[in-house]
């Protein structure tokens, strides 16, 4: 568990650091329109990629965790799911190519959408679900670090001016597909691909619920950018991309424990040990709330500095959009927790499906109402309201079927601890330091204040246990 936590932490930190290092350079070189073009193509292809995934990225974790003690059964399950994924990728690719060929909207940037099709056809190589089910996060961590370092080198070497947006697209594609190649290289000693005695049909019913849920959920995660592009222009997409990337930059860190714990939640749900399950819920809840609340407040108060530092002055119009979106780390963190650590492990896929279908309808409606008038700010409001609605529905279903308890008071305590960020940041602004030092000093002093209040005033057991065992956590044996 300790090693997995560290490897998963490394992977999460890599996912956080990569956009911090890469996006400031790319945004300054390509500008809002260049970023908007590339992001629009990537988002569109990612949506079709999600369709091709057919829910296997979630279902696969459960099935691998269930059969990992039986190598023969594990190989059979892996082969069945990989076969389904490959076939779905081929079918969806045909649909994707048909859409970009038929509709005139895509013709002005046809080459971008054409190249992005690699996301769809190579989707079957995304087998993180296999390693997550085995709880082998070391490979995922190594892969993330190596590929992102290479991608950064390529970015700085080959993206030099605004005309290099196609090169930028290929570098993004490499960072996504290159990960999967490394995954396959490490498969040899983990499992084998078999053709005999495999049955695909038995997986379709459970996959359909997760598939429907994933597609509906993606309507307000990937298609927010697509709808904004259809309803407004590439400039609005570029500004929205800058805001949403900064807002979601810490999400891998917030959800890292959830990915680590998901196989264990599935196992404990099967064992039906409610006391152990409640203990795991308490641990995940505490982790998500303690981390996400100060991130929300910090993003809101320092949005101007974040946008200027990481995107440049030409993206300054994205500041109000980022302030609207700043609450997403908490909403998405709680939604991720309710869905993937309670509902899915407890077999409530149908309820989760209903929640995201409702969310999808609200997202489309709100985007069509708000985006044409308020552009990127309208899409930001739609995203926040949709996440709030879906998370609320998740909680409704959990309350209906289970009696698990959640420490809601912890959110109030965390918000109280964050109140002190306001005078700290205000005083730092009076000193008139440059943007980098303003951010570093504000984040450093606010973090110390926040955790000190939890440690000394609220005597938070989670914080105390973490700090007291910090040296032991990194002492891998």
Alpha-carbon distance between the two ends: 12 Å
Radius of gyration, in Å, reads: 22 Å
Q: How many distinct folded domains?
A: 2
Helix/sheet category: mainly alpha
Question: Poorly predicted ranges (pLDDT <50, ≥5 residues)?
Answer: none
Helix content: over 70%
| Overall pLDDT | 86
- Count up the helices: 23
Number of strands: 0
Oligomer: single chain
Tertiary shape: globular
Main pleated sheet:
none
Beta-strand content estimate: under 5%
Sequence of secondary-structure elements: HHHHHHHHHHHHHHHHHHHHHHH
Reconstruct the topology from this structure.
Blueprint: H1 2-53, H2 56-67, H3 71-102, H4 110-116, H5 118-121, H6 128-133, H7 137-158, H8 165-185, H9 204-218, H10 223-231, H11 234-247, H12 251-271, H13 274-301, H14 303-311, H15 319-325, H16 328-343, H17 349-374, H18 376-401, H19 409-418, H20 421-431, H21 435-457, H22 461-468, H23 470-473
Top keywords for this entry?
23 helices, mainly alpha, 477 residues
């Amino acid at each position: 568990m300790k090693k997995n936590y560290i490897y998963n932490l490394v992977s999460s930190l890599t996912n956080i650091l990569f956009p911090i290092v890469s996006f400031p350079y790319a945004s300054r070189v390509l500008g809002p329109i260049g970023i908007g073009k590339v992001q629009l193509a990537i988002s569109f292809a990612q949506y079709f990629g999600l369709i091709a995934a057919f829910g296997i990225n979630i279902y696969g974790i459960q099935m691998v965790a269930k059969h990992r003690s039986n190598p023969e059964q594990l190989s059979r399950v892996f082969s069945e799911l990989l076969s389904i994924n490959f076939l779905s990728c081929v079918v969806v690719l045909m649909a994707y190519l048909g859409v970009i060929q038929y509709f005139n909207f895509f013709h002005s940037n046809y080459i971008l959408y054409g190249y992005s099709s690699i996301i769809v056809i190579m989707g079957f190589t995304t087998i993180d679900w296999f390693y997550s089910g085995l709880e082998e996060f070391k490979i995922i961590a190594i892969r993330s670090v190596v590929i992102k370092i290479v991608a950064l080198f390529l970015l700085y070497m080959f993206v030099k001016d605004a005309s290099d947006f196609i090169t930028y697209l290929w570098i993004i594609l490499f960072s996504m597909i290159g990960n999967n190649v490394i995954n396959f290289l490490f498969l040899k000693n983990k499992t084998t691909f078999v053709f005999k005695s495999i049955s695909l049909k038995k997986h379709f019913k459970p996959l359909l619920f997760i598939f429907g849920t994933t597609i509906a959920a993606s309507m307000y995660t990937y298609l927010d950018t697509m709808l904004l592009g259809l309803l407004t222009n590439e400039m609005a997409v570029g500004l929205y991309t800058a805001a949403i990337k900064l807002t979601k930059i810490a999400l891998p860190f917030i959800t890292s424990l959830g990915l680590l714990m998901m196989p264990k939640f599935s196992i404990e749900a099967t064992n039906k040990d409610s006391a152990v399950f409640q203990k795991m819920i308490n641990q995940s809840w505490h982790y998500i709330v303690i981390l996400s609340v100060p991130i929300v407040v910090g993003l809101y108060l320092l949005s101007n500095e974040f946008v200027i530092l990481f995107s440049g002055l030409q993206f300054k119009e994205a500041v109000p959009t980022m302030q609207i979106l700043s609450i997403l780390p908490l909403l998405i963190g709680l939604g991720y927790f309710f869905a993937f650590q309670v509902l899915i492990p407890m077999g409530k896929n149908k309820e989760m499906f209903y929640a995201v279908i409702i969310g999808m309808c609200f997202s489309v409606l709100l985007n069509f109402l708000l985006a044409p008038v308020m552009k990127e700010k309208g899409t930001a409001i739609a995203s926040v309201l949709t996440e709030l609605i879906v998370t609320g529905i998740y909680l409704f279903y959990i309350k209906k079927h289970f009696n698990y308890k959640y420490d809601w008071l912890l959110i109030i305590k965390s918000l109280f601890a964050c109140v002190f960020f306001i005078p700290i940041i205000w005083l730092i602004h009076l000193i008139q330091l440059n943007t980098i030092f303003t951010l570093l000093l504000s984040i450093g002093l606010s973090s110390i204040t926040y955790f000190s209040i939890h440690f000394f005033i609220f005597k938070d057991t989670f914080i105390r246990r973490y700090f007291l065992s910090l040296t032991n956590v990194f002492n891998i044996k």
